[in-house]
Each structure stands twice: as structure tokens, then as C-alpha cells.
Amino acid sequence: MPAPAWQLEGLCLADPDLFTSDDNRGELVEEARDTCNRCPVQPECLAAALAEEGTTAANMRGSIRGGMTPTERWRISRPKKTAA
Description:
Number of domains: 1
Mean pLDDT: 86
Distance between the termini: 43 Å
Number of strands: 0
């Protein structure tokens, strides 16, 4: 299946290794976030990441996507607990 056309506009294409680092902390993350914040397709990227990952656990996710770490994306996508 071909990649969506919007992916060809991503600023991450200039340095993909920055976004796939196993280190989701510190300077590399901030540099990746800065790039995402300037990216014209950041909303599409984040929406795609959330849709693809669903409720997958944070430790099973990877990469900075849509300006968020795997843990940050998990926090907004995990099932909400309901009061019993």
C-alpha cells in the first residue's frame, strides 16, 4: 500500500533518524518536536499515529510522531476508566 501523499511533505524526511531514536528524552526529542511544530502536515501525522497505534501500550510504540513521544500518544489514546 503506498504512503499517503501528505507524508511526502513531512519535514521529518530531511532527517528521519531524529524521529526514530530509542531515546525519547532530552535534546533529540526537543529537536524533533521543534521540527514537528514547524511541519505543515503535523496534524495529519499525529492523527495517523493515533489511528495506527489504537490502544497499543506505550512500550510497544516507537518514534516521535506528530510532535509527541510514544508515551504522550498513549496517554491521550488509552481507554478511559469508568467509575463503577
